[in-house]
Amino acid sequence: MAVASNKEPIVTSMPNRRQFLVGATTVASCFAVSRFSSAQDRKPTRIILLGTKGGPNLGNIGRNNSATLILINYIPYLIDCGYGVSRQLISAGITLNRLRYIFITHHHSDHNLEYGPLLYITWAAAQQTSINAYGPPGLKKLTKDFFEYERFDIEIRIADEGYADPGKLVAVQEFDQAGLVMQNADVKVTSCRVRHPPITQSYAYRFDAKDRSIVISGDTAYAPELAEFAKRADVLIHEAMYLPGIERLISSAPDATRLRQHLLASHTSTEDVGRIAAQAGVKTLVLSHLVPGNDPSITDAQWSEGVRKHFKGKIIVGKDLMEI
Ligand SMILES: [Zn+2]
Ligand SMILES: [Zn+2]
User: Fold this and answer.
1) Separation of 108 CA from ligand 2 center, angstroms?
2) Which ligand is nearest to the CA of 66?
3) Is residue 291 within 8 Å of residue 249, measured between CB atoms?
4) 109 CA to middle of ligand 1, Å?
5) What is the whole-number distance in angstroms between the Cα of residue 82 and the centre of ligand 1?
6) What is the per-residue pLDDT across 81-107, written as a single tens digit (0 to 9) for each?
7) What pLDDT band is residue 168 in, cutting at 50, 70 and 90?
């Protein structure tokens, strides 16, 4: 575990042109990567937490809204696009023209607010980029509507500055049930529907790479099926809610009763996160999407203590730009 910075290059060797192109094309052609990459070229799978707070308000204690990066053999896989994700990617050393895969867990804004702007900035930086985006229904409309929202700018840049049409920038694949999301030579990505009422289309993702298996819970209440999905994963990144901090959080809400009901019905207490991690038998548990994520008085020991009652493995309290 380490905190990534600009000074510490996240990628020691940039992908060559062939790898860029392979990553940009179809799943089938991604199999070409392994044929052209020597064993020495391969790097272990890495995780960088880009945003570790839950909820739509902006963080003021150094936690950005939800986003997680997995690097597998140099290729970035981005899970969720909370506000600030573009800047966080750059802070983590990822030039945006390398972006190839985006996964959205569900359509709460703390997970998708910067999805469109990230696509736009990527297009502005590298117009020939091709991105595959995966997520529950609504993602196609979100994509289309964002480009409509910026239509004036895009049309002017195409006419005035010779920009390429962004129409082919992103290929969106929606799914409405759990299962295989995508697979290439480096990783198999599967999904599990989790419990996040009133949203019914909310998913966890599992990344099975050659050297590491990683599960990201997305937003969910206590969900035993998630423990099954995460069985024996190396790393489980799970959302976490610190119950003693909730009353302080909701005291300024316009309707504290409803907000309390929402939080308790659709998120997971630290104790229950411990139960899930223990049932799954994971090696390492990372707490992220922290609620409250803006309260500096909650210590790492407090985040961990409820978890530890049930889970005896390694516990990491997530922080932005932490590498795991
Ligand atoms: Zn959330
Ligand atoms: Zn949510």
Assistant:
1) 5
2) 1
3) yes
4) 8
5) 9
6) 999 999 999 999 999 989 999 999 999
7) confident
Name the residues around ion ligand 2, CB cutoff 5 A: 108, 219
> Which tops the pLDDT comparison, 14 or 147?
147
Q: What is the mean pLDDT of the chain?
A: 87
How far apart are the CA of 177 and the centre of ligand 2, in A? 17
pLDDT of 29 reads: 32
Cα of 264 from ligand 1 centre, angstroms: 13
Euclidean distance between CA atoms 279 and 156, whole angstroms:
55
From 233, 178, 240, select the one nearest 211 (Cα to Cα).
Answer: 233
Is this structure's pTM higher than 0.90? Answer: no
Res 273: pLDDT? 98
Instruction: Say which amino acid occupies 173.
Output: Q
Ion ligand 1, residue ranges at CB < 5 A: 54, 108, 110, 219
Beta strands in 210-318 (DSSP E): 213-216, 235-241, 284-291, 314-317
Q: What is the DSSP letter of 39?
A: G
For 146-153, which contacts have Cβ atoms below 8 Å and span 24 or more sequence positions?
Answer: 146/115, 146/116, 146/117, 146/119, 146/120, 147/116, 149/116, 150/116, 150/120
Give percent helix, percent strand, percent coil of the chain, each to the nearest 5: 35, 25, 40
pLDDT digits (tens, 9 = 90+) for 136-164: 999 999 999 999 999 999 999 999 999 98
Amino acid at 302: Q
Q: How far is the CA of 107 from the centre of ligand 2 (A)?
A: 7
Measured in Å, residue 240 CA sits from the centre of ligand 2 at: 12
Q: What is the mean pLDDT of residues 12-33?
A: 33
Residue 309 — very low, low, confident or very high, per pLDDT cuts 50/70/90?
very high
